[in-house]
Design goal:
binds calcium ion, Inosine-uridine Nucleoside N-ribohydrolase, Chain A, alpha/beta, two-stranded antiparallel ribbon, 9-stranded mixed β-sheet, 12 helices, 11 strands, binds beta-D-ribofuranose
Length: about 300
């Protein structure tokens, strides 16, 4: 089977760890590069975490370190949710730096995209700083990007502000550049993430499935223990779910933008379902997710990991 080439831009991060696992062990995806960006915790920490994950999974995918700051907005991490290191609760082996490329993530993304025979899909599961800079520094890459599938934004309410989601609100100006790029976009937002739930029965199954399940359970238990009973939210896996099982989503093509200046709503995605803004559709927005399909797909995907 022909694998779809992807680059994952990420800030691991508990739920990033699972999205990365699913992509690395999928028979349909070919992960060409992992790029890191400041988000859940600092750039140094997320890069170290990406390398720890690759050592754990025994996968040799190159990693490139990207931006340590959003473009304009001051950086505030989410270590209250992801722990000081971003991935606490499991005793990972120390990684070596063998997989860490010398070049900046933006240059390495450009290199991988330009040297590929096929178009590349960008999977963004973190603030969009690296991708925005890529599009500004190397606008010619647009032709060679198949689409940008991202976890972020919301068609309803937020988790960073009343209406704004963490990845978008951490670097709203970067998101603006990406959303207005003309590249095909797919948004799997916070509100579908709220339905991507793994309940206690399934998290027990996951724990006993394999090493990956055991590691994921330990990470979630440490920092999301409170939501074990009500369901663990697998936000970033929603982007992989779109690539691997789009049937689980109800999707609309619509105009998508982001609020930059609202005094209470900065960083909020604007999903113009009714066409008030009189703009052509620029994105596919996932509006709903079949919870049972997600659960089944997710457990199957984790079962393929080591
Ligand atoms: C998103 O923000 C981060 O906390 C998660 O890793 C996910 O990418 C959810 O808002
Ligand atoms: Ca993330």
């Amino acid at each position: 089977m022909k694998r779809r080439p992807i680059i994952i831009d990420t800030d691991p991060g508990i739920d990033d760890a699972l999205a990365i696992a699913i992509a690395l062990f999928s028979e349909e995806l070919d992960v060409k590069l992992i790029t890191t960006v400041a988000g859940n915790v600092s750039l140094d920490k997320v890069t170290y975490n990406a390398l720890r994950l690759l050592k754990f999974f025994k996968k040799d995918v190159p990693v490139a370190k990207g931006c340590s700051q959003p473009l304009i907005t001051p950086f505030i991490d989410a270590s209250d949710i992801h722990g000081v290191s971003g991935m606490e609760g499991y005793d990972f082996e120390e990684p070596d730096d063998r997989l860490l490329l010398k070049g900046h993530a933006v240059n390495e993304m450009n290199r991988v995209i330009q040297s590929s025979d096929e178009k590349i899909t960008l999977v963004a599961i973190a603030p969009m700083t690296n991708i925005a800079l890529l599009l500004k520094l190397y606008p010619e890459v647009k032709e060679k990007i198949q689409e940008i599938v991202f976890m972020g934004g919301s068609a309803s309410r937020g988790n960073k502000g009343v209406m704004s989601e963490f990845n978008m609100a951490t670097d709203p100006e970067a998101a603006k550049i990406v959303l207005s790029s003309g590249i095909p976009l797919v948004m799997a937002g916070l509100d579908v993430g709220w339905k991507a739930l793994v309940y206690p029965d399934d998290s027990e199954k996951m724990k006993n499935m394999n090493k990956t399940g055991e590691m994921a359970y330990a990470l979630f238990k440490k920092y999301r223990g409170g939501s074990m009973k009500t369901g663990l939210k697998m936000y970033d896996s929603c982007a992989m779910a779109y690539l691997l099982c789009p049937e689980m989503y109800q999707v609309v093509e619509t105009y998508l933008d982001i609020e930059l200046n609202g005094s209470m709503t900065a960083g909020c995605t604007i999903v113009d379902l009714k066409g008030y803004l009189k703009q052509p559709a620029n994105a596919k927005v996932c509006m709903d997710l079949n919870e049972n399909m997600f659960r089944e797909w997710f457990l199957n995907a984790i079962n393929k990991c080591i």
